[in-house]
Design a protein that fits this description.
single chain, 430 residues, alpha/beta, Adenylosuccinate Synthetase, Chain A, domain 1, Adenylosuccinate Synthetase, subunit A, domain 2, 3 domains, 10-stranded mixed sheet, 11 helices, 20 strands, binds inosinic acid
Length: 430
């Protein structure tokens, strides 16, 4: 482990696992942090001094002054959102100059992507996905249709404007004819993006070259995932997923590195489960306990403000997501949210029709009825614990059960928003 140079960190549930806090904590140990997929649909919450940041585009390591942050080629970028985030950093006197770079191959989210995301969700009515309306799906669609506009295209105004013209003609047709919406102005978008080109011109890099060179120089690199494995376009609860690959498999293409350069992996999971948007969720609670989890855990989306659906920890689900990512170690977050519960339940299996099964099955998620193991709550604060031994016995039992049922070791435990409310296992070598 001591020779390891790279660590991939990703979500094992439906996103919002608390990755931002863990990345911020780990940032001091890394020279480079690179995001490999997703866009401003993400909301990584980080508390720092008196500030509370919700990073949508900027990698969560930006608060560490020595860390270089990269937005990788697998990401989609809304330059307007990014500019606002940079303004917030400037206000907090955080210098990001020569520390934040964007891969020239990352695709740009244009206003028509957002307009189409919105129009399509509206048209779907009750069958909507519940997207963040940030234009994610339509932008990735253009990428795969090979008509997308990439960050590098902004280096030449003419190239950019030509691509914009061609795309907007199609998109306006769809907006007007299919969705009865207003067309968007080519002139206005062109003007806006030419300004962005000037603002962001020093941030363009070949991310793959940068990261491979850093690797060869022995630098420590963290690959930051957004969303979570069950929102993965291939392995998630399709069609209620996002349009990228938050899984370990997404790292290689999203950064431009080979699989032999992913030295270590850690999966982030919450001590219970949440989901935003539509789609199946076996251990979801519809009663006061669910509301209590929502309230105690402040479970409201960092991007859209939507209330998150809440339920108990689903062990077979995390065993499934850990397995498909090849993950053996967990960062378990928000244990302290469970401090007040008299009893705590863990989903240990399901009933599917009349049969019992211990395995999560992503295709059948909507039909799985959870079976729970009841555990004793600890009813005292865990927020000031400094080691696993400081935790009350029922909490330690809860963690042991999670480890046993997920086949993973808990390497990091988060018991509060602040950096120092983090317990690290001696086995975690970073
Ligand atoms: P989209 O990524 O905006 O297209 O949304 C697709 C689905 O993923 C919706 O259910 C969203 O609520 C969900 N989603 C997207 N990003 C996040 C995230 O960062 N955390 C949690 N859910 C997300």
């Amino acid at each position: 482990m001591d020779n390891n140079k790279t660590l991939a960190l990703l979500g094992l549930q439906w996103g919002d696992e608390g990755k931002g806090k863990i990345i911020d904590y780990l940032a001091q140990k890394f020279d480079v942090i690179a995001r490999y997929q997703g866009g401003p649909n993400a909301g990584h919450t980080v508390y720092w001094q008196d500030f509370h940041f919700a990073f949508h585009q900027v990698p969560s390591g930006i608060l560490n002054p020595k860390t270089v942050c990269i937005i990788g080629r697998g990401c989609v970028v809304d330059l307007g959102v990014l500019k606002e985030e940079l303004e917030q950093l400037t206000q907090a006197e955080i210098d990001f100059k020569n520390r934040l770079f964007i891969d020239s191959k990352a695709h740009l989210i244009l206003p028509y992507h957002k307009a189409l995301d919105n129009a399509r969700e509206k048209a779907k009515g009750k069958d909507k996905i519940g997207t963040t309306i940030r234009g994610i799906g339509p932008c990735y669609e253009d990428k795969y249709s090979r008509i997308g506009i990439r960050f590098g295209d902004l280096q030449d105004d003419e190239v950019f404007l030509e691509k914009l013209k061609r795309n907007l003609a199609q998109k306006n047709f769809l907006l007007m004819e299919l969705h009865n919406d207003e067309p968007l102005s080519e002139k206005q978008i062109g003007k806006e993006f030419i300004k962005y080109a000037e603002f962001f011109k020093d941030m363009i890099i070949d991310g793959s070259d940068y990261i491979n060179t850093a690797y060869e120089q022995g630098k420590k690199i963290l690959f930051e995932g957004a969303q979570g494995t069950l929102l993965d376009i291939d392995s998630g609860t399709y069609p209620f997923v996002t349009s990228s690959s938050p899984t370990a498999g997404g790292v290689c293409n999203g950064i431009g590195i080979g699989p032999t350069r992913i030295d270590d992996l850690i999966g982030v999971a919450k001590a219970y489960t949440t989901r935003v948007g539509m789609g199946p969720f076996p251990t979801e609670l519809f009663d006061d306990t669910g509301l209590m989890l929502q309230k105690q855990g402040s479970e409201f989306g960092a991007t859209t403000g939507r209330a998150r659906r809440c339920g108990w920890f689903d062990a077979p689900l995390v065993r499934y997501t850990a397995r498909i990512n090849g993950i053996k170690q967990l960062a378990l977050t928000k244990l302290d949210v469970l401090d007040r519960f008299e009893n705590i339940y863990i989903g240990i299996g399901y009933r599917y029709k009349d049969e019992k099964t211990n395995n999560f099955n992503v295709e059948l998620t909507g039909e799985l009825k959870p079976e729970f193991l009841k555990m004793e709550g600890w009813r005292c604060s865990t927020k000031t614990a400094k080691s696993f031994d400081d935790l009350p016995k029922p909490a330690r039992k809860y963690l042991d059960k999670i480890q046993e049922l997920t086949n993973c070791e808990i390497s990091i435990l988060s018991i509060g928003e602040q950096r120092d409310q983090t317990i690290i296992s001696p086995n975690f070598k970073w």
